[in-house]
Amino acid sequence: MSVESPGRYVGGEKNQIIKPIDDSIVRTVFCFPDVYEIGMSNLALQILYKVLNGPEWSSCERAFSPWPDMDKKMRENNIPLYSLETRSPLNEFDVIAFSLGYEMCFTNVLQMLDLGGVPLLAKDRKDTDPIVVAGGPVTCNIEPMADFFDAAFLGEGEEVDLEFTKVIKEYKDAGKKDRKALLRKLADIEGVYVPSLYEPKFEGGRFTGYDIKDNAPSSVRKRIIKDLDSVEYPLSPVIPNNNVVHDRAYLELFRGCIRGCRFCQAGYLYRPVREKSMKTLCEQGIAIMNNTGYDELGILSLSTSDYTELGALTDGLLEVFNKQHSSLSLPSLRIDNFALDLMEKASQTRKTGLTFAPEAGTQRLRDVINKGINEEDIMSSLELAFKGGWSTVKLYFMLGLPTETMEDVEGIANLAIKIEKLYFDTMRSIGAKPRKPEITVSTSMFIPKPFTPFQWEDQNTEEQFLQKQTTIRNMLKKHRNIRYIWHDVKTSCWEGIYARGDRRLCPVILEGYKRGSIFDAWDQFFDYEMWTGILKDNGLSWEDYTQGRTVDDPLPWDNIDVGVRKEFLKREREKAYNEQVTPNCRQQCSGCGATCYKAGICP
Ligand code: SF4
Ligand code: SF4
Question: Which ligand minimizes its atom distance to the CA of 589?
Fold first, then answer.
């Protein structure tokens, strides 16, 4: 009771699954390297928890990063990090599976292993130690963490997780103990990357390629689920003890995105688009609500407006939900007449805020990034929305995009000012009494990411980002109806190192952890000066990772195949520089390479 939110550490939630501790069962603990409230909002956790608890011979439990107060108590009292279901220390499991959704959680992985009594470095683990594996989008370049993981899953986990644990089961049943041989066998599963089989080479401070050991595959292809209607979905998700970040049930409509915004890693990583059928979704949505007691269902996917039957789906669900006094929560939709109508129906009388993500302040830069949204559309949709009674608008932008000039930066503030004027003009034109509109401008920092057309770009420096933030702040100072919020520059600068990092960062991360760094994703804990000092002590610099790459340089993630070809990304990069847009997958296939999966939208 002496720690904050003890509910994080006790388990016992509705719908948790407890299986016996038995040698015939392969025991996995799903680890989320952040606090309980964030982890329990993670859909992948709920999906894989259900999948791995499916067969009799497999069990899955959960563990989360203890918050610093609990971390301290556990160390003082020699309490190992344990799973919530059976209170087993992590080192008693066969598999420890981490979900890596963002790079800044890296030191929390080390915290969890350390508290769980598991050697931090894969090379120090004995035959009897658990196999430590990573999944999630970050694994498309796991190199900065390669020394700590025995294996990584690439792509979607529902099938590969069970194939992986099945091999471990066979190995266990046969009484085999040779860890090295087991890892080599696991590397034969499609979608499984075993870092120790790939020795990176460096020359003159630059990555030059890999020495591949033991005849491992030269590249590892990500896995996808071809038919989303046929895979398990958690219809009885575990209901968290605490108020979590997104406290509602979730329904996933589709995976992938038809649009190819050139900065967006998810848009390329999850290709191709695959939709669930409306019938499946209606059945699943109703079942989840009945099984959980939630009164709100959130629908979820990368770009929800692009679901082909969104209107019919929401109508179908609302018909049932209205009778049950439960509601449907829509994510930020691409705002048009149709979306306003949907939002009106979903929220009934409550007018929630409208969200737009133009990402860039001018049409020129929006074409560079292939953001298929233009100012006229935003203005005409907003006029309609203002007439319909909406007065809260949120606008998301990125600073530091390739080719950005100060004119583009000023364009961000100018757009917000035009929207403020539009609100009052619209109210005047319809003779309505204006309320105080709330317009929020939010800027984040562009970080070039692997597997995007911008993977070779320079990242802006701390000074450049700060100058751009100041410009916008000054321009919006006098506009009382416009609020400007910005992200911390230092965290984004550091994230840029991890995103395109290589294996030389493993000792840096280990040292940062040893000096006490955890929860780096939380601004209050992140110590940029300490980290840059460690980087320097290791003979590395921020520039090594964020500046001066050419399209001919070998990349640390060249041994990973996500379907989208490098040649396509180079073509898209050229088009970006020529301010040319690429049609979305539904308008025309651009031949990105993902057709190799023979699934979804691809011809
Ligand atoms: S619409 Fe653009 S930014 Fe959004 S998920 Fe798709 S590609 Fe990414
Ligand atoms: S192959 Fe064509 S349709 Fe398929 S994801 Fe790539 S661009 Fe889109």
Answer: 2
